[in-house]
């Protein structure tokens, strides 16, 4: 049975919050065991917890903010558009991908695929 | 080899235009042979041209407008958010799904999956 839309939405909200302000552990707690991450789509799919941790570890030390712009839920899946603003020293970068996730019955993420291209990452302030 | 982002974007633009104002043939011309359609995600996947034609035939007679809101392209795939406004007699309905498509080397659609829920379809005018 698919999780309810409320449960899916709660995970999406928690994910966007954790990507911006949480630790790698906060993010990983939202994933089911055996989950996969493909970010961006077309790159190698991360299939181990170690490789998924490595992916999010890059974000953990950054000063970030995030905002969920749109979220569409269908069955055990969600597609959502969000904005992530990251500070690297004096420079601020912004990217607004569309992520697609699938969820298990408990609303944990079983797969994540992020749609964005390098040119979608824009510098919004700094040198 | 993945089609270029320009080629993918051209198909997405043509799709949004054809869904609003085109014929079923206009839409089908954007699909590759053997393409699949799952709209919304979680419903039965349409795997024959006949069943895909049947799906779009419902839209053909309607007075509609559409607007592409966001389009993210990654490799041979795109995720895009668009608004479709449809008139049924005196009533106007609006839905803004996120569609995810995959493309062949020539930029023709090989799969389409639409993320939206029945509650995303809202009546914006009429009785």
Automatic annotation (TrEMBL), chains A, B:
<dbReference type="Pfam" id="PF12680">
    <property type="entry name" value="SnoaL_2"/>
</dbReference>
<dbReference type="InterPro" id="IPR037401">
    <property type="entry name" value="SnoaL-like"/>
</dbReference>
<dbReference type="InterPro" id="IPR032710">
    <property type="entry name" value="NTF2-like_dom_sf"/>
</dbReference>
<feature type="domain" description="SnoaL-like">
    <location>
        <begin position="12"/>
        <end position="111"/>
    </location>
</feature>
<protein>
    <submittedName>
        <fullName>Nuclear transport factor 2 family protein</fullName>
    </submittedName>
</protein>
């Amino acid at each position: 049975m698919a999780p309810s839309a409320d449960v899916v939405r709660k995970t999406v909200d928690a994910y966007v919050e954790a990507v911006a302000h949480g630790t790698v552990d906060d993010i990983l707690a939202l994933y089911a065991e055996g989950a996969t991450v493909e970010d961006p789509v077309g790159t190698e799919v991360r299939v181990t917890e170690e490789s998924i941790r490595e992916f999010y570890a890059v974000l953990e030390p950054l000063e970030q903010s995030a905002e969920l712009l749109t979220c569409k839920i269908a069955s055990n899946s969600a597609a959502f558009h969000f904005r992530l603003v990251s500070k690297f020293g004096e420079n601020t970068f912004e990217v607004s991908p569309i992520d697609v996730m699938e969820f298990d019955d408990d609303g944990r993420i079983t797969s994540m695929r992020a749609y964005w291209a390098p040119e979608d990452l824009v510098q919004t302030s700094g040198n």
